[in-house]
Amino acid sequence: MNITPLTSDHLIPWSHLLAICFGRKAGDMAELLRFLQPEARLVAWGAWDGEILAAQYSCWLTAVHHPGCDHALPVGMSVNMAVHPAYRGRGLIKQVAEPVYASLVERGAVAGVGFSNAQGVQVDRRSKGYGYEVVGQLRPSLFYLGRRLTNTPFRLTTQWPSQPFAPVSLPENHCFHHTPESLQHRFGQHPFRQYHFGVWAQENKIVGLVVYRQARLGPFPLITLLAAHSQDMVALCAQWLAAMRQQHFRLVHVLTSPTSRVLDALRVTAVPIPIHHARTPYYLTLKPLSPAMPASLRSFTAWDCVGGDVL
Question: Nearest to residue 120, comparing CAs of 104, 109, 139, 133?
Fold first, then answer.
């Protein structure tokens, strides 16, 4: 096997491998790779058997806000691992993951992070060489829009808004370092996923944004909140929920860490409905890469995560 970095020059075999492993169209996977920005943001290595890409591992270079620090901490988010069915059971993931993390360290990353499902967590726990530890499980919450809600001018759209954003101060917990630009890339420029946006504007500036998707819970229409960006999260959620009620929605679903500004705001503005089991659990996982990594990253209560953080 020949282990090499993967770049935009490898899009055709790379996208075909991802399509085989994830049951998607190769064209969609090629667009996804372009969206993830190989060379610039996506650090990836692959194992080649001649001209066949047998395995690949990749991390997306992003940043985490650390309270009290004047700059965000670079981290690598694990986004894809794939092994061709004909090459499984040979330990290829470990071989391609090691140079990915070495490259991340060279770029200043202090940790690897990821959101694993239950199957992925089993892999993490079985493989000491993989090096990930479980920080905590994201919890689903369900809310009923049963209270009287006041609606001020609030726009619902499927197009990314063109107005400038008002400044928003950083939270008191660890969170992925979202900016209007990063939110636009994540939700406004995705190659094949369609998101909805709730926009709160004042004096020609956006002072609040909600990213959500429409779904169903059995026969009932449902909205899933993925991200929210505002200085006043309670006011933002109150206005968005009022707009959702006018659209005849009554249920809101959100996936968060226990310490979440979005979760706190929904508890004030809607009626909680108990959920006792997550059908598809997701876990925040962590791989230390540097002595500079703050120890508090290991504390789940120090994290503010929302479902849209799960790439």
Answer: 133
Give the count of beta carbons closer than 10 Å to the beta carbon of residue 220: 10
Count of residues in the chain: 311
Q: Give which of 116, 237, 260, 104 is closest to 175, Cα–Cα.
A: 260
User: If DSSP codes are grouped into helix, strand and coil, which group holds residue 230?
Assistant: strand
Task: Return the pLDDT at 270.
Answer: 94
Which spans in the chain are helix H?
11-22, 26-36, 92-106, 118-126, 180-183, 233-246, 261-269
Give pTM, 2 decimals.
Answer: 0.93
Q: What is the 3-state secondary structure (H, E, C) of 47-66?
A: EEECCEEEEEEEEEEEEEEC
Taking phi over 0 as left and psi of -120 to 50 as alpha, with beta for the rest, 76 belongs to beta
Domains, the chain, with CATH or none: 2-137+281-309 (3.40.630.30), 140-273 (3.40.630.30)
Query: What local confidence, expressed as pLDDT, does residue 126 receive?
Result: 59
- Longest Cα separation, the chain: 65
